[in-house]
Design brief:
By secondary structure, the protein is an all-alpha fold. It has three helices and no strands. The longest helix is centred in the N-terminal third of the chain and has 42 residues. The protein starts with a helix and ends with a helix.
C-alpha cells in the first residue's frame, strides 16, 4: 500500500465508524421521541407524514455531515489547510 493510500485510509475508517454510530444514535432518538407522532401522521395524513419524513432526512444529512466534519477536523486537519 502506498503512502498516499495509507494517509487517507485512517480518516476514512474513522469517518465511517463515527458516521455509523451517529446514524444509529439518530435513528433510535427519532424512534424513541418521534415514533408515536410519526405513526399517527402515517395513519391519518400521509401528505404531512411524507413532508415530516423528508424534513427529517434533510435535517439528518445536514446535521450528521456537520458533526462528522467537525469531529474529523479535531482528529486530522484537512489537506487544504495543511498546504
Amino acid at each position: 500500500m502506498n503512502a498516499k493510500a495509507k494517509r487517507w485510509l485512517w480518516p476514512f475508517l474513522i469517518e465511517l465508524v463515527v458516521y455509523a454510530l451517529l446514524v444509529l444514535g439518530y435513528f433510535f432518538l427519532v424512534l424513541h421521541f418521534l415514533g408515536d407522532w410519526l405513526y399517527h401522521l402515517f395513519e391519518h395524513d400521509r401528505r404531512w407524514y411524507a413532508a415530516a419524513a423528508l424534513g427529517l432526512i434533510v435535517f439528518q444529512g445536514i446535521a450528521l455531515e456537520a458533526l462528522t466534519r467537525g469531529l474529523l477536523s479535531l482528529v486530522k486537519p484537512r489537506e487544504e489547510e495543511e498546504e
